[in-house]
Specification:
- With about 450 residues, the protein is mainly beta.
- The chain has a domain of about 200 residues: Lipocalin (Beta Barrel).
- The chain is built from four helices and 24 strands.
- The chain is globular, with a radius of gyration of 22 Å.
- The chain starts with a helix and ends in a 7-residue tail after the last strand.
């Protein structure tokens, strides 16, 4: 009898351990991986959606590391939904968007737009597990169903926030062929994910502001969480600490936080590209895809704008980068307004790259001051599907766009280096989110 009790106790303990363990979790890596290629702090990782007609080789999507010192490709993270390592029974395209690294043990967390997934990877690109947040549409709705996961970011608390975008990405009645109804705008939100369990623990829902729409980029500043509105031409600054529940305890999460009337985001202020314009002004569509800060807190964001006052076609649109000074509420400058620099979805500042430094030191047009030879300053990296690559720009005020850039395509900011793409003898990409690779947080 005593033996049966002991066996029963062992059985219950083993059963509980199996139930609590993630079914797709890969064992921790040991010394056998030491010294081999991994995502390195300071490099970039960029999501390549591999969509035609931008990508040389259309495919399910992948994530590439960009070595900022050499310009070469580093670690490549392939589609985790390829059948052999498929999770949750998912197979088919991935279409990665948000790319984060430097989480627990330095792991990367990458969300996919095709099937509303969030995947965790080791620093060498090995897949660990994949989940579908509770905002995911039913699998029967097919690939690319709305809403989609776009941008992502680590919170100061260590949790992950994901931008959940609901919109129409195939609206033939307008150009660009994207739009957002009021109901879709209300359904767009930000979800909070616990990185240990990958469960949704809270949400930020739409405030009472019609400029809130499908969102894409998320960054954290000294005065709140900055969220770029894809179809709103605005950046909402949100008090990220207001309204959160007991977010470190997933069991306390109230599912009704998904209700659009509950847990509304508390807005601190709104940076508006078109102050005074109505919420449905066509200039607001397909605008703020990505945002980033420089070291001084100045804000950079994408904005797709008309080059003429007539109804726009592909040749009448300019997708450029706006510059907003720290604490400001409107742009004071732009860059990257050349016609070819279209469909910018990734944007980040970092130290100047090796190729960029070489160009500045060679100074073929004799335009750079001698102080630039030290190569000890920040630059801006821009991922654009229209060029199929990532470009690097100076952000010194002397090298922003000139006043004649819009009309004559002259006097526009020019890149000092480019990465990937046919211009560098590589494949053209369909680059999306761009993030700096980071090491694991200090313990």
């Amino acid at each position: 009898m005593e033996l049966l009790k002991r066996l029963k106790k062992v059985f219950l303990l083993v059963s509980a351990a199996l139930l609590l363990a993630p079914a797709t979790y890969v064992a921790a890596q040991g010394l056998e991986r030491a010294g081999l290629p991994v995502l390195l702090d300071g490099n970039f990782i960029v999501a390549d959606a591999m969509n035609a007609p931008f990508a040389t080789t259309p495919g399910p999507g992948r994530v590439l590391e960009m070595n900022v010192m050499t310009g070469d490709i580093g670690v490549m993270i392939d589609n985790p939904l390829d059948g052999s390592s498929a999770a949750l029974g998912l197979t088919g395209p991935w279409k990665p968007t948000g790319v984060l690294s430097g989480g627990i043990e330095g792991h990367a967390f990458i969300n996919g737009a095709a099937q509303h997934t969030l995947s965790e990877f080791y620093r060498d690109g090995t897949h660990i597990r994949t989940v579908r947040p509770i905002t995911a549409p039913d699998l029967s709705e097919g690939f690319g169903a709305m809403p989609r996961l776009l941008g992502s970011q680590f919170m100061p608390s260590g949790n992950i926030v994901l931008a959940v975008c609901d919109a129409n990405f195939n609206d033939p009645s307008v150009f660009p062929p994207v739009s957002s109804s009021l109901e879709q705008a209300r359904n767009s939100r930000i979800v909070v994910i616990d990185p240990e369990t990958l469960q949704t623990v809270d949400t930020y829902n739409a405030p009472r502001d019609r400029r809130w729409t499908c969102m894409a980029g998320i960054i954290f500043g000294e005065d709140g969480m900055y969220v770029s509105m894809f179809h709103g031409a605005t950046v909402f600054v949100i008090d990220w600490e207001a309204g959160l529940g007991n977010e470190k305890k997933p069991g306390k999460f109230k599912r009704n936080h998904l209700n659009k009337r509950v847990n509304r985001a508390k807005v601190v202020r709104v940076i508006d590209m078109y102050p005074g314009a109505t919420h449905d002004d066509p200039r607001r569509r397909d605008s703020m895809r990505a945002i980033t800060f420089d070291a001084d807190g100045n804000l950079y964001g994408t904005n797709r704008a008309r080059a003429t006052e007539v109804d726009p076609g592909p040749d009448d649109m300019r997708h450029h980068v706006i510059v907003v000074p720290r604490g400001g509420d409107r742009p004071v400058g732009t860059l990257a307004m050349d016609h070819g620099v279209q469909i910018i979805a990734g944007l980040r500042t970092n130290r100047i790259s090796g190729p960029g430094c070489d160009y500045v030191r060679e100074d073929p047009d004799d335009i750079f001051p001698d102080s630039f030879n030290q190569c000890d300053f920040e630059t801006l990296y821009v991922a654009a599907s229209g060029t199929g690559n990532v470009m690097e720009y100076l952000i010194n005020s002397d090298f922003l766009d000139g006043p004649d850039c819009r009309d004559l395509n002259m006097g526009c900011a020019q890149p000092i280096a480019s990465f990937f793409g046919s211009a560098n003898g590589m494949e053209d990409l369909d680059p999306r989110m761009l993030m700096r690779a980071k090491d694991a947080p200090a313990k």
